[in-house]
Amino acid sequence: MNDNTPPPPSPAKPARNTSQQHATSEALLELAIEQHLAGDLKTATDLYQQALQVDENNAKVLLFFGILHNDQGKHAEAEQILKRSLTLNPKQVLAYQNLGRAQAALRHFDDAMTSLQTALRLPQCPLEVYNDLGSVYRKVGRLSDSEDCYHKLLAVEPNNAD
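Request: output the structure for the sequence above.
Response:
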C-alpha cells in the first residue's frame, strides 16, 4: 500500500431529522413571539426568518410571521404568508382571523368575509372574530349582518360594549 494515498473522504454530515428541525424552529418561534410581544419587531422578524430557514414548512411560524406583517401594516405580505400557513394547516383559526384582517385592510372585503366566516366555524374561535366580521359587514353596507355580529359578541361578553 502506498503511503501517499489520500485519506478516504469524510462521511457526509448527516441531515438533520425532521423532529430536530421542528424543535429548533419551535424554540426560535418562542423567542420571536417574546420579542414580538415586547415590541422589538426587528429582532422578532429576524427570529421568525431564522425559524423558517430551519423549517420552511412550519405552519405555526408562518402564522405568527403573518401576524407580525399585519402589525407592521404590511397587509399584502401578511395575506401571502397566512395563505401559505393555511395550505400547510387549514385548521388554524387564528390564521383565518388574521387573513381576514389583512384582506379587510387591503379592502378585499369579500375575501375577508369568507376568511372570518371560516374562522367562526372552527373550534376555539376567539370572540373578537365577531367584531372583525361585524366591522367588515359595516364597511360594505351590510348593517343588519354587522349588528347581528355585535349582538352575538355582546351575548357572550356583555361587558364588551366598547
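Helices lie at 18-38, 41-54, 59-71, 75-88, 93-105, 109-121, 128-139, 143-156.
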